[in-house]
Structures are given as structure tokens and as C-alpha cells.
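Researcher: Please translate sequence to C-alpha cells.
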Amino acid sequence: MTFGEKLTGLRKREGLSQEALAEQLGVSRQAVSRWEQGAALPDAAKLLPCARLFSVDVEWLLDEEQDGEDRLSAAEFPQGTERPSVHRDRPWYIAGGIVTGAGSLGMVTMGILSAVFPAVVSEAPAGVEWVRVYTGLAGFLKAHGVEWLFALWAAVALAGLWLLAQPPIRRREQTASQFSSWYAAGVAVGLYGVGQTAWYVQLGKLRDLPLLALFLAAAVWCTVRQFWRLGGEPDKTRRRQERIIALLYTVAQGVLLLLTAEAGFGLVALVLHIGVYFICAAAITWRRSGRGKH
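Model: Translation complete:
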């Protein structure tokens, strides 16, 4: 097995694209491509970092007489030795767990306080014939004016979930997927903002109209950019599948927008928007990993 074949197998085993490997070794993608094609070999300064990255020895990489199938499998790592990707992912999981735990603890604490000190708040907006009554957690937050604090804890928890989601999302993006998790998140945030501000506008807060327009423009821009990126996928079947997933994702976010604008779900709607986002990201990852192919 040649050096190029070994390098290709090791790179795919770790779920790295040529661009990602080139970035970690400090070379160009074209250099990695030449190595894998057998047109050139890395210089001595790059061989050792390359071997360390994949937890193999330089001699094995260069010796074409040594078989490589066993080392290219997950069983290659000695007992007690972790894959390189595990070391790269650990900081994300630790930070995400701490931040998510802190945000969740803050929300749970406020929930307990709302049970210990119950409050009831009613709202009767001018020009309407209905009265909205808030009880439980919502009543406690409004009565004490700490809605912002609960929203802050929720934002901290969501930031923690974002950190926890980074390892699989980054691995998916390294497989050259045209689907952008950033644009998908922009659609979710934009449409949630549209729904929430539309609800406030219905309550008579017309000063929120410019904010509504801003959220709407952001959501439309992210949607257009997402579909434009998906158009660059060279595989027609994969392009069609990912466009269908992106379309269903946008429709689902739009339905949540209508529900929020009509009923003002608030934090519940935010959780649903985030949930749909992660479902979509998981569906794209599943398709890219090949498990979704028949």
C-alpha cells in the first residue's frame, strides 16, 4: 500500500476533507492532493506532524511493503489510546456541558421560585376585547419583572447546546457539504424574531415594526443564500435530497412563525425553532454519512 493510499484512508477514517487536513498540517489542499495521488511526498518537516495527527509511525507511512488495512480501521488504536478526533472534540463537550448546565440550573431555579411564590398577572391591551392571564412561571416573571433574567438563562443554555453540537457539525462540514449550519441558524433566529415581533405589533406595539422588517429581511437572505449554496453540490441526487430537506426545514420554521405570531408562544416557540434546527442538521449529517442511502 502506497503512502498516498494510506494517507487517503487515514484522512477518511477521521472524517477530514483535503482542505481540513491541509489546514492542520499548514500546507495547501493541492499539496495534499498530490500526496494522495502519489505525485509527491511531504517533506521531512511535515511527515512527523502527519504521523502524530493520525497516531501512526512515520516508518509505517513510508514503507509500501507494510499492509495498512488493520491500521486504517478503528481497531488500530492501542488499548487506552484515544482517536485524535476525541482529543479535538473534548474541549467542546466540556465547555458545552458546563454552559448548558449553568443555563439549565438558572431556569430550574426560577421555576422553583415561581412555585414557592406564585403570582397571577392579567393584561388587557387597548382596543381588544380579550384579557390575557399569566400564571405559574410566566406570571412570576411578569410580576417581578425578571423576564429578561429567564431569557438570559435560556440564552446561556442554548449557547451550551450550540457548543455541544459543534463537533458533529464541524465533521459534517469537513465532508464538503454545501449545507450551511450558519444560514440554517439564521433562518431559525430570523423567523422566530418575525413571529415574536408580529405578536407584539398585534398588541399595539407599533414601534416594533422596523425590528420585524429587519428579522424578515435576515430570514429571507439566509434562506436564499442556503439554496444558492446547495446549488453548488456536484452530485445531482445529493443536491436534490438536501434541497428537499432544506425546503421542509424552512416550511417547518414558517409554521412555527405563524403559531408564534398568532399565539405568542415566546420561549416555547424558541425551543421548537431550535429543535427543528437540530433535526435538520441531523438529517443532513445522516445523508452525508451514507446511512441514508439504499
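Researcher: Any highlights?
Model: The beta strands are 121-123, 132-134.
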